[in-house]
Write a structure and sequence with these properties.
mainly beta; seven-stranded mixed beta sheet; four-stranded antiparallel beta sheet
């Protein structure tokens, strides 16, 4: 069973930055993609960004494009989400997820159903 451990959440003022980390226990390189989602109270889980582990290709939701950056560290099997210019509406629980399904179409990973494992979530609160 793959375990994902997130860190880096917290309280930040609007306009500030945070970097989330997600370490995977999977060192077998069967990881095909990882993604970040968020869920605000009373709302559905929302796709933010994904990265193909082998090629490094990335894909972003329009709501975060230009503000958030997803990246990976191969040696640490860790994925990061750099969040800049944060807004109060970015307040949510942020989740990382790992997919073990190959897809040549990055938009496949926009769906939560594409992922096999999930982290426990980390709270991000942006104050106005």
């Amino acid at each position: 069973q793959v375990q994902l451990v997130e860190s880096g959440g917290g309280l930040v003022q609007a306009g500030g930055s945070l970097r989330l980390s997600c370490a995977s226990s999977d060192h077998t390189y069967s990881n095909y993609a990882m993604g970040w989602f968020r869920q605000a109270p009373g709302k559905e889980r929302e796709f933010l960004a994904s990265i193909d582990w082998r090629s490094g290709s990335t894909y972003y939701a329009d709501s975060v494009k230009g503000r958030f950056t997803i990246s990976r560290d191969d040696a640490k099997t860790t994925v990061y989400l750099q969040m800049n210019s944060l807004k109060p509406e970015d307040t949510a629980v942020y989740y990382c997820a790992q997919s073990q399904t190959t897809s040549f179409v990055m938009s496949y990973y926009n769906s939560a159903n594409a992922y096999d494992f999930w982290g426990q979530g980390t709270q991000v609160t942006v104050s106005s």
